[in-house]
Each structure stands twice: as C-alpha cells, then as structure tokens.
Amino acid sequence: MNKQIYLDYNATVPLLKEVKKSLIDCMDVGPLNASSIHYYGRKGKDIIDVARTNLGKLINTNKNNIIFTGSATEAINLLFSNFNTIVVSSIEHLAVLSSSKSDHIIPVTRDGIVDLNFLETYLKKLVKNNKKTLVSVMWVNNESGVIQPIEEVVEIAKKYECLVHCDAAQALGKIKINLEEIELDFLTLSGHKIGAPTGIGALVYNDKINLTPQILGGGQEKGMRAGTENILGIRGFGEAAKIMINTKENNCSQVEVLRDFFQQKIKDYRPETIIFGEKANRVANTLLIALPQIPGDLALIKLDLESFSVSSGSACSSGKISKSHVVSSMGYDKLASNSVRFSFPPNDAILNSESLITTKELDMLARCWSNL
Amino acid sequence: MININQVIKEMDLEGNPSDHRVVVAMSGGVDSSVTAALLVEAGFEVIGLTMQLYDYGKALQKKGACCAGSDINDARLVSSKLGIPHYVLNYESIFQDQVIDDFADSYLRGATPIPCVRCNQTVKFTDMFDRAKNLGASAMATGHYIRRKIKLGKPSLHTGIDLSKDQSYFLFATTKKQLEFVRFPLGSLTKGETRAVAKRHDLNVANKPDSQDICFVPEGKYADVVRKLRPGSIEAGNIIDVNGNVLGKHNGIIDFTIGQRKGIGVGGRKGINDNNSILYVIALDTEKNNVVVGPKEFLSCNKIKISECNWLIDLINEAEFRVLVKLRNSSQPVIGTIKVNFDNSIAYLSFDKPQFGVSTGQAAVFYDFKESSHILGGGWITEAPNKLADINLYNA
C-alpha cells in the first residue's frame, strides 16, 4: 500500500504521541472510577482535576466552569435543551443546526462571514417578544476555515440582552481563545480536534446561569452530565490541552506556508479552481475549493484511490456526501456539491509531531487535483 | 464449483485481470457482494460503489432511522472483508426525479410502472456508469442474473443460466453502448452457487434473504407511497361494469391494476355460477375516474403498441418478424409477430393467441424466436386495447 497522505485534520487530529503515552500511564494506574471514595477513586478524581485545570488554563477560564461531555455535539445538545429561542448562523455545524431546530437563521456574506448588520436588525425585532434568547455563532467554520467576528457578535447580542454560545471546536488549537477577554456565556469544545481521543468534549459555561441537565443519574460533573466519567478521554483532553498551552501562542506559521504553497500550486495548475473564503480572515490550516465541472464525491474518491485522505464539507455517517450548506450559504449554490476540503495540522506543534507533509507531496496532490 | 478462469474469460477484458480496475455496483445484497468477491478472487482491482437512492428513514416513516438503512452498511462490511475500497454515491435527487416521480405519475395515469427498470436505465446505467468511467474503470459489473456473450465480435445479452432468477426483463433497456462497458459475472451461476461463494468468503450477507419488493416501497404497499407522494390528486370514484352500471365505490384508481381479480371490493354477479361471475379489472378510466370491471373475456388483447424501444440487435427499418415476448417478469414468453416503425422506436406486436391482463406501463421484452435465451430488445407498453376498447370503439 502507498503511504497515505492525510489532510483531514479538521475532521480529526491523530492522537498525539504524548497523549497516547499519558493514556497508557492512566490505564496502568488501576481501576479508575472517580466516584469511588477509596484510593483508586481519589486517583481518578485527581486525573480529572488536572485535566480540567489544563483545559481551563488553555482558554483562560475558571476550571470549575467546565463540564466534560461525550462530544462537542453532546455539549451543544445539553445547552440548547435549555433554550426555546436560539438564533444561529447559516453556516453552523450540524450539531448546532439540527439540535437548535431554529428558524432564526443569520446569513453570511459571500466570503463566509456572518452578516452582522442582519444579526443586529434581526435581534432588534426578535427580542421584543422573547425573553431568554440564545445567540449561537461558531468561532471558526469547519469547512471554509473562515474566522467569525465573534467579539462583534457578542457585542451585538449583549446589546439586546441575549446570551451567547460559541462553538469553538474548530478554533481550539488554531487561534487563541481567551475567555477573560470576551464576554461569552457558553463555549463548546471537542478533544479530538487537538489530538485527544474521540469521545470527549466539553461545555464551558457561565455559572450564573442555571442549566438543566439532559442525562440524569449519579450526579457526576456537578450533576450536569451523569454517567461514570470517561477517564481516558478526559485525561487525553487534558494532556492535549497542556501541549497546546506550551505551544507559543498557537503558532501556525509553518502550517500557513504549507497551505499557501498548496493553494498557489492549485491556482497554477488549475486556475479555474474556486477558493472559498479566500478574501476573508481564515485559519492557517484550511483550504476549501471546488471545480465547476467536478462533483465533490468524484474528487474525493479519485484522491482517495491515489492515497490522499481529504474531505468534502459534510458527509453523513453512512458515507453519503450531501450538498454543503456552508458553500450554499455563501451564495455558491451550484458548487455546493463540488467542494473539497483540505485541512492541514491545526498548528506547528502538531505539524512537527507528525510525519511531515512535504512540498513534493503537496505538489503531487495539486497535480492530481489538476487532472480530475 | 465456480471456475474462476471462466469468470475471467467472461469479463472479456484484454490482458491480465490485475491490469483492470472494475467498479462493482454493490447494493448490499448477496448477489452484488458475490460479484465483488469473484472479481477480487479473479485478480481485478475492484472498487465497490453503493447508491444512496432515497431517505430510508423517511420511506419507512421511522423517526430517528438513518437516511441510509442497513443495506449500505452491509455493502461496506462486505467491501471491508474483501479488502476493497467502497464509496457511497448520493443519487437521492436524481432517483426522485427520474424514478419515484415517474412511478407516482404512472399510477395516476392508470398504468402499472416498473421502477426497477427505470432505475437501471437512468441512475444505475447512466449516472453510475459515468462515475465508473470517470474513475478509470475498464468495466462496471453488477450482480444481475443475465449473461453478456460475444456474438460475431459484438456483445449480446442472454438470459441467466438460472432461469428462475433471470433478470433480463429488467434489463431490456440496456443500450448497445452500455453493453460494451457492463459485465454480469453471475449470469452463468445458479443462486445456489452464488450463496456458496458467499459462504466460502464468509460474507455477512451469505444468508440474507433476496429482496422482493420495490426498494422504496415498504411491505409492497405501493398505493400508500403514491398517496404520500401525490396528496390531493387521488379521488374516490365509481366501480362500474362494462355496460356502465355502478357496482360500487373505490378510493382511487391507483389501488387497481388491469387484470386484477382479488380485492376489487365488489362481489361477483349473484345467481350466475360460471366463469363469467368472476370480475376482473378491465379498464382504468382516468378521465371519468372510473374502475371498469367485467368477466375475463373482456381482458382479451390481440395487439399492443410498444414505445421507446431499445434494440440490442441490428434491425432493418420497418422490419417484421416473429418473436418471443415477455409481458411480465413472472410470466412465460408468448409468441407474436412484431412490426417496427421507420426509426425502430415504436413496435406493434400481434399475439398468436390473445393475452389477458396486459397493462400499459409494463415492459414488453423480445427474445429470439429460435434462440430463446437471446434478448433482442424491448420497450414500454403504451397501448394495450382489450375487448372493452373494441366495443367502445364500435359503439362510438
């Protein structure tokens, strides 16, 4: 088999070596049910506490405001079950769009940025009749990589006394998240986007607001999420967070050089390629592109057969590829079935801990693209 | 025992199997799974493609069911077992436009459609074909029980060896051009042999029952599906006899098929105890929204018009010849004489003996009069006048 070239880091980041080691250490400690009052129970509690502290440090918030969940999706579902009126942007992840069941949708510009004027006008009208409105806008879009003006969203939302949730699954590890500097009420995170195992997420919340849990039982996670804690997942998330803290300000310059090199090659070899969100402020690792004549599934299959693992915007768990609602929302309806996403490691630390992607391989990939 | 060299030979691809990429259309059933298994065994580079055709959860009206259903998962498991890449193609909107809508509209016209043929004709052998070609495949293989043979240097289509499983009726619309690219490795196998191969490969689908119904119609209740697809366009009306007497009411002509005997909702004629007392659906009058019932003799049909003909042989224009013709998948072929029009697109077929219960919307598939396994072509029955029509014509 050929060497597989993986460029789907926005889907999942491979388990980091240090994280893997921490998991094995954790497995060697013994039976870890953090609810037990004996020696092993205390060990379990300690592990969770360290992880919570690390994650709190990474995003600069009080660790006591963090609840571990089974995924970012679960965290979002838990949060949204507490609100009747939720205003969302049109490019949110399905975790937000499906669980909010919202009809209050804020469009985006052709560059993929949430329309702030629309948001303001909309909230002005909406909140007259509605108490307890939640505004939910993602920090970084998972498909286009476009960074959303989250500070402005918060400012507008607060003006109309709304609470604000930010899906930061794609922001973590790519850009700096400092919750001391932004007045967010809720933030949701996913461990496997920064090199922790899958199956661990977190809800960060403002403890002045009472939330009702969805999963009831033994009262774990301050009663907000019952069920024996996923010690390995939590340990892994904490360890990955620690690595991110020690990374200089989420340095992404090497990643950006690679992405831009690849983008330029694509432009050189196949100039008619459309690059989504090119003019917007994007994270350094993401490139969403399309060819007018080539369906996305065909591109993905061909690239996969050439040993390149990339992704289309949105695939169902069955593997069926649907139209990208993100590309559609950006006003490119005709290209919504054609988009292909290349996502590099989220930052230089993760890039360097992986087997490096060479410019030669990227050149090969760009040639494959041009031959589609 | 399957002879793998025979499989390779019938694939009709030059050079070594390993030189060729072959796409297998995998439904998740045992037939297409074994097709993939045999081609892997033969040494071809095999890629499995599965079509997602409709929202499975919605079709079954099951909340929370995945859009894909278990068949796609079966295809994936088989592919994984065989060590081949497998992909799912989203053809939901094409399938809706070209198969499901046509299905509903046909019933509203009083015809009885065969969506499986439309699906083979459009989604499978057009869109999936293109995809297979785009992927650089030398051929696309399916798990149909039908044979492709080379005759005088050209591919021809023949019934499957296992006549109880023969699928030629559903594949008459395969064009000559498509026949160059498509392969049917199971055509020379019996169903028993297919299952044996599946067991030998320890495939999870080895004991999976054959699919019986139209895939998007749960439990064969086609009328429920049509009602859901075309709400408001189905109205109650009268059930009348051939003389126009009202015998009862119906809830929509879509519930009836020409030739239907059971479940009409009106009893036989009282006091008369011969064959004429049994009532059949004779006609579906869409204009007046009437279901016409009568004794079997009124179903008698001598001649039909067949449109959108597809020919797998070379024909001279306006040819006239004897053929064997199948009017239903489950029925035996009957003998008739065919005459084609100037461009071979329309055929008129006169039966040697009158046929009963011929319905428009069904296919007429032609087989060589002398070599009954050889499929010559086929088309859609657009006119099938029976005795009732003859009488009406006379009265007019």
Question: Can you walk me through this structure?
Answer:
The complex is a heterodimer of chains A (372) and B (396). Chain A has helices spanning 17-29, 39-58, 72-80, 94-100, 116-126, 150-159, 231-246, 253-269, 296-305, 325-329, 348-353, 359-370; strands spanning 5-6, 66-69, 85-89, 104-106, 133-136, 163-167, 186-190, 201-205, 274-275, 286-290, 308-309, 340-343. Chain A is 37% helix and 12% strand. Chain A has two domains: 5-15 and 249-370, Aspartate Aminotransferase, domain 1 (Alpha-Beta Complex), CATH 3.90.1150.10; 17-246, 3-Layer(aba) Sandwich (Aspartate Aminotransferase, domain 2). Chain A is globular, with a radius of gyration of 21 Å. In chain A, strand 3 (85-89), helix 4 and strand 4 (104-106) form a beta-alpha-beta unit. Chain A has a seven-stranded mixed beta sheet with strand order 2-8-7-6-5-3-4, with helices on both faces. In chain A, strands 9-10-12 form a three-stranded antiparallel beta sheet. With 372 residues, chain A is an alpha/beta fold. In chain A, helix 3 runs parallel beside helix 4 (94-100). Chain A is built from twelve helices and twelve strands. With 396 residues, chain B is of the alpha/beta class. Chain B folds into three domains: 4-220, Rossmann fold (3-Layer(aba) Sandwich), CATH 3.40.50; 235-294, Roll (SH3 type barrels); 299-395, Elongation Factor Tu (Ef-tu), domain 3. Helix content of chain B is 28%, strand content 27%. Chain B is built from ten helices and 17 strands. Chain B has a six-stranded antiparallel β-barrel with strand order 12-15-14-13-16-17. In chain B, helix 2 runs parallel beside helix 4, helix 2 packs across helix 8 and helix 5 (92-108) packs across helix 9. Chain B is globular. Chain B starts with a helix and ends with a helix. The A-B interface holds A 297-298, 300-302, 304-305, 316-322 and B 47, 52, 66-68, 72-73, 76, 85-90, 131, 134-135.
